[in-house]
Amino acid sequence: MFHFAPGSVMTTDQSGFNLSTVFDTVARAVPDQEVLVWRERRLTYGEMNARIDGIAHFLVEQGLGCHTERDQLAGHESGQDHFGLYLRNGNEYLEAMVAGYRARVASFNVNYRYVEEELLYLLVDADTKALVYHAEFAPRVAAIRDRLPDLRVLIQVADESGHDLLPGAVAYDEVVRTPAPAAGMPTPTADDLFILYTGGTTGMPKGVLWRHDDVYVSSMGGTPFGTTEPFTSYAAIAEAAVNANGGMTSLMIPPLMHGAAQWSSFYMITGGGKIVIPDNVQHFDPVDALTVAVREKVVSIPVVGDAVARPLLDEIVRGNYDLSGLAAINNGSAPLTPGVRAQLLEALPHILVMDAAGASETGLQMSSMSVKGMEAEAATFTPVDARTTVVDEQFTRPLEPGEGGGWLAQRGRVPLGYLGDPAKTARTFPVIDGVRYSIPGDRADILDDGRITLLGRDGFTINSGGEKIFVEEVERALAAHPDVRDVVVVGRPSERWGSEAVAVVQVEAGSRVTDADLLVECGRHVARYKVPKAIVRTDLVERSPSGKADYRWAKAQAVGASEPVS
Questions:
Q1: pLDDT score recorded for residue 358
Q2: I need a labelling partner for 542 at 20 to 30 A (CA). Which of 33, 270, 377, 472 fits?
Q3: What is the DSSP string of 144-172?
Q4: Can you give the pTM of this predicted structure?
């Protein structure tokens, strides 16, 4: 039976969970266990919790917090101040994120690859009041801060860049030592906001607004893995963390600015586990990642599609790494092609490869599991529970198993809306027969046995001669050729077809594969009308840090390669 230490406090709010209190609960239950390892830093739950307290104290002292409660707001509105996390991976990211929640300030992710114009758009759209940033980004912050009159709190994290503290900014190492304010701290609630900005792959980035309780239970560990029933209390979370006897150790390769990495991290935290970050956070280095994985005896490695899995696989095959303790590679956010999955299981026949599907607007929806000799079907998943379904073309009803195609949807615990955008909120989160759904735009088929085949995002569909071509399906078909290292399929104008599919392909070094060979392989897996009309070769397919394809870049390559084909 779990008991709290004398003097500890546990929130007993029956309306649900808050992520700050979840972390505090686990930290009080297993204070001496390590929560995060990065380079020479080894932080226990107790130590990180104290640092989180310091940052939360500082934010409250600056007058930041919640000014309007949830029950007085529409779904697209926020009643809290917003705190941007402009950081690479490191302990500071998790500390600042949770500290915002503890101060009832809604922290949100900032893409560190953004140029000045994109960064300005995001910070304005988010009505940013406070920003924590690595010193390497100080020049970019300095260049736009005069156009952000509401941004009044700057916290700068020292790094190897050598940039001086910006005028008016406060050093992060000072902030973490801030004592509790004399007036006390606010009490976080289950209705407080978890804000996740989309990557902007189908338009400008949008802030997805979740209640803490909904996102935690649906996607961040509030429902124990392998079950459909969420935790019933904070005491149950504490007991589970103690009983896990140290929990699992996971290597966090994906950037924490991406929702899937935040969700995965809180799964580890809920179980009292340890998050290990590769030494190199400037770019993905498979040698560094695997060296750290062996050193820390990691049990799971999250990846984001072939962009991470393939270089990791190449180094596993090339090197000599003792990964006998590795139990699983967990893929999410970007497709893992069947060929790469099969090669991973060949190189590491003792592991489980799990593919997960979901979106910023839905949370975790579906998964598939593969072991050597029993690989899952490509892009076909089992729903996590009955909340995941497919609705018809007109958004009038959920489809029954075997009815075929429609829109992938989620019901029940779904976001409140998009920050500041009532129209898009209404479109993406419609009410069907009195039930609120999230339908962010993925096409899918529901099969006879209730499994769901994911076809792809409707915004990435090519309408060619009246036929719809889902680019992800064609990408998987081309990636089946062993000489294809990476591929992105896009549409370009065609006088004959209106739009035609073009594949931007990166082949393996030294490969002599011809375009005709690639198209023949593609034709083995998809109908003839889906086979690209052209192949455009590139030395490197550009992707985001989260592994998602950069379709705007790919389209520029395709359109610029030649005149439209008639």
A1: 92
A2: 377
A3: HGGG-TT--EEEEE--TT-PPPPTT-EEH
A4: 0.86
